[in-house]
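In response to reviewer comment 3 from the previous cycle, which asked for concrete evidence that the modeling workflow produces usable outputs, we include below a single protein chain processed end to end. The sequence was submitted unchanged, and the resulting structure tokens are shown without manual editing.
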Amino acid sequence: MVVQPDGAILVGGDAIGSDIAQGSALVRFHPDGSLDEGFKAAIPYPGLVFSIALQANGKMIIGGHLTDVSGVSRTNLARLDPDGSLDPTFNPGVGSDSWEVDSLALQADGNVVVTGPFTTLAGQKSFDSGRLLNNEPAVQYLTFDGSTVSWTRGGSAPEVWRATFEYSPDGISWTNLGEATREPGGWEMTGLSLPATGRIRARGYTTGGYGNGSSWFVESLWPPALVISNARVSTSGQVQLEASGPSGQTVVLESSPDLKTWIPVGTNTLLSGATPLIDPQPAQSLMRFYRLHLK
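The workflow returned the following structure tokens.
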């Protein structure tokens, strides 16, 4: 079972003998316990659902013994849109019809860890475990305006069912600020009065594994670490760099010839991996410095 952010309850298992939703191995209930008859997932016999992983964008990855999801062929692994309809863009396939997926886990960067008795994953040899690389941004970043902490989460990042915020003056000792409040697109806490220096940490708790019996946390820090690396000059004289930091965060790249005068070069949104940046002006000066700051 998995509880979604709006309180809806996903229940997966065995379709045999069920009189709910025409015997589907995956159903959803409203927070009051009534059946969500608008949920479009249909997994008939002999379908089995052993694990459910929620993405922050509302999509659901399901693993088990699957051959048919909503009338479309799927081999043991599938992803559903928020309304339960099948996501046609996700079809890695795991093993054959005689195998299954026992456990799923979503990493902070959106990559999907898959385990179970199988020998192939996404067409590649993979014995009993493997990882699928994320193909869309996993957004999570933390902001603080002096009184409100906001933790934006979205895309393929793992959904969390509970979040807490903490403060540290030195990055070593942490004081719990309390439970965060769920808001559209993430979590927040208002009415804070904290020193201008120090760090804030957000931790969100998620579930997965076999029968969704495992739990762990993902976290973000404020102020975030922004890193510039792999600087090089192209044949045309342009400077090419790579930036890393919280996925989905908007940053401004600036350049300076003397560390005194800073000129904006461009605005970019960071990806889950290294984000390529380009200074379109030829590198005319002997030295040029670069820095990133949050927009």
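Residues 203 and 219 are 4 Å apart (CA to CA). We consider this sufficient to address the reviewer's concern, and the full set will be provided in the supplementary archive.
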